[in-house]
Amino acid sequence: MARLKSCAQCHGEDGNSLNAGTPSIAAQPRIFLENYLVLTREGLRGSDAMQRLLKGLPDRDILAFARHYSSLKAVPAPGAVDRVLFERGRAIAARSRCGSCHLPDYSGREQMPRLAGQREEFLLEVMLQYRQNRRRGGDTMMSAALHGIPESEFPALAHFFSRLK
């Protein structure tokens, strides 16, 4: 599929992004990827750039993309682990029960995205978007889930998730 080369430019050849603001898509749950790609193609979610890339993409290609990227191995985000920040993030995630939806190892499931190994900067920005009602799409679950977590704790959460394998 020629369009996979377009994906690799931002998301990495193996689906593990090297770009700070771009999510890694390797090992994301297949159903999550399918839903995200369809919603983005239809203009209901995602960035304008992603909408342009997906415009007119047939469902069969979306299913193939989702199968491909969900089958790849996730690699933890680059950078050293700050043990204090990591442990604080672990405690916040446990207290907030993030694993009840994203699974205890944060690998995601069905329509819930993988958090383990995701780009730290991306996770932080997404949490802020949910908190500030800037995230496009009809899903309000994460806005509600983040409601009780102070923004000052978002960096610890993002660091924790990004350093998991």
Summarize this structure briefly.
The chain has 9 helices and no strands.
Which labels suit this protein?
single chain; about 160 residues; mainly alpha; Cytochrome Bc1 Complex, Chain D, domain 2; 2 domains; 9 helices; about 0% strand
3D structure, described in words:
With 165 residues, this protein is mainly α. The protein has 2 domains: 3-70, Cytochrome Bc1 Complex, Chain D, domain 2, CATH 1.10.760.10; 83-162, Cytochrome c-like domain (Cytochrome Bc1 Complex, Chain D, domain 2, Orthogonal Bundle). It contains 9 helices and no strands. The longest helix has 14 residues, at 83-96. The radius of gyration is 15 Å and the shape is globular. The two termini are 29 Å apart. The mean pLDDT is 92.
Question: Which helices and strands, and how do they pair?
Answer:
Layout: H1 3-11, H2 30-41, H3 48-54, H4 59-70, H5 83-96, H6 99-102, H7 120-131, H8 141-146, H9 154-162
Number of domains: 2
Q: What fold name stands as the CATH topology of the largest domain? A: Cytochrome Bc1 Complex, Chain D, domain 2
Helix content: 40-55%
Rg over alpha carbons: 15 Å
In the predicted model, the low-confidence regions spanning at least 5 consecutive residues are none
Give the class-level CATH name of the largest domain.
Mainly Alpha
In total, the number of strands is 0
Please report the distance between the alpha carbons of the first and last residues.
Answer: 29 Å
